[in-house]
């Protein structure tokens, strides 16, 4: 089992405001290299129009093994939903991809720097959007 907590800054690709995100995730290893789980994120945005955002997503992570037993590059992807409050409330689907490195700093504790790409689909009057994020996470492997 893997429990994680992360924070990141998100930068929209077209307009919008910069967001600060705090998220948590839980997952279970289904093989030596594969992790399946769920993640929950809470966002606060600032800029021309402040927003609050909540995300719930599934996740699949594949870890690549290296010669160093403390370093594991990974790729992650998952679908989810995004609920945004700010000038109204909207609920949209999203798809998230992530590339990073799991670096063990202790037997069951790792730092996880990563790059995220999030695509949020359009819904009614809200256009689709994409966001890049630089993330740093702390994970506990049980």
Short descriptors:
142 residues, 0% helix, 8 strands, mainly beta, eight-stranded antiparallel β-barrel
**What multimeric state do the chains show?**
single chain
Order of helices and strands: EEEEEEEE
State the helix count. Answer: 0
How much strand content do the residues show?
over 45%
Number of strands: 8
Helix content: under 10%
Question: Biggest β-sheet: count, sense, barrel?
Answer: 8 strands, antiparallel, barrel
Low-confidence stretches: none
Layout of helices and strands:
Elements: E1 2-12, E2 18-29, E3 34-46, E4 51-63, E5 71-85, E6 89-106, E7 109-120, E8 129-141
Structural write-up:
With 142 residues, this protein is an all-beta fold. The protein has no helices and eight strands. Helix content is 0%, strand content 75%. The protein is elongated, with a radius of gyration of 16 Å. The protein has an eight-stranded antiparallel beta barrel with strand order 1-2-3-4-5-6-7-8.
Summarize the structure.
This protein is mostly beta strands and 142 residues long.
